[in-house]
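fyi for ur records
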Amino acid sequence: MLPLIALKAPDGRLKVDGWVSKYPSVQLLLDHLKRKTRSETSRVKFLHDVDKFLQFVKMEPDQLVSLEPAEIEKLLQRFVDEMNDGVKSLRYVNGIAGDVITFLQCNGFKNGRSVEIEKLHIPARYRSKGEHIPQPAEIEAMAASCGSTLNGLRDKAMILCSYTSGLRNSTLRALRYGDVQSELENSSNNKGNGKDGNGADRDSSAADPVAVLVPVYARMKQYVAGACKGNIPYFTFFNNEAVSSLRTYLDERKRVYGGALDGKDPLFHSEVPRIPKPQRTHTTVGKDHFERITKKAARHAGIAKWSDVYVHTLRKAFESALRNSNLDPDDREFLMGHILQGSKDPYYDKTRVEEMRKKYLTVKFFPHKSPQTEDLRKKQILDTVKLLGFGEDKIKRVEEALAKYKTADEAISEIRKLSVNGYNSGGNGNGVVSKHKVVTEDELLQHLDEGWSIVRELTPGKIIIGRGADF
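which gave:
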């Protein structure tokens, strides 16, 4: 397959530079696409598909459109039939044929000169590859498997934010820190409806449930092509678990890169080694990278069909959560970023942010959680703290935090706050503290470079490391 980047070069086979081509026939196609949505994603896809057909017939675009419709029909039908023998996806073949026909229509092949072929039959519920929509417990396990390094914290936040917002891959990656900054800072003022994130009665001592507003707008396309599909503006939310993991990730990112984030910085940054480190926090995560993050988490979570888990399946899991929580169908469609059917869309009030926030808070994203499950998680946290060698005063503070909150996620957030205020483990009694955490062998080298030291091996493949006064 021709690399898409080649189609953007001025000296490419289609002689394209942005929205301009030296071929008149290709320019007519580009003009048509500009009048439609001016989508960069659509531009690249159409050029790729037309170029693929032109390579098959060994012609230049202006040469192709000089042929008679019957001649083109024979060539295009042969292309479809031969492609059907060599590829797995029927939709992929039909999609190329459809884009070629659009190119021909832009060049006058319509009405009495239209080109018609037999496309491949696509059976109902056809899929060329497997798909596994993860259950809530599986998504929780995926997030938990990500680890405690900066990369791991980012991966966990991306998975939870993707699932609880339903955002598409490109849209989530296009988000800027400034898009959610004020909501993150002020979310403690967002009062809930007396229910927790799973729809159960909320303990009076627990923190109010959170739903952080996430806007989707057309200008996002300047960061990631296709970020606002169809230029349809809407909004959705991140839930408690997603917000907690997002805050933890952002705090660690600020620590590693030494300073506050700019509003134009990507919400989720890239840690690709080939990018100079100072630039990584300003660089957006790649599309394929997010897919690899999702599959890796699914594999580490023990999902049997981990290779069939994609970012888009998290979006489908979000849709299932909305449906299972009996949310109004129109509200579901809006939160998915869809246009409402028929004449409903113009009359749907898209400004009811607080009303929609309250409805969103009733969605049960993790219905499998129960008090017994939370008690077990709290016990595991306390056992880990003791195993890491925290002092008695620190353990007591952790116990108080665990008792104060109904969920382990809320308690973890409070425990981290204690650490920021000088209650990290390993203090030497003079107000100077040290930190400990558990990392994998793969993560060890990065931490040693950042000044951490090995304390001892916890289990095969797991090492306790520390930094601070005692190291």
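The chain has a mean pLDDT of 82. thats all i got for now
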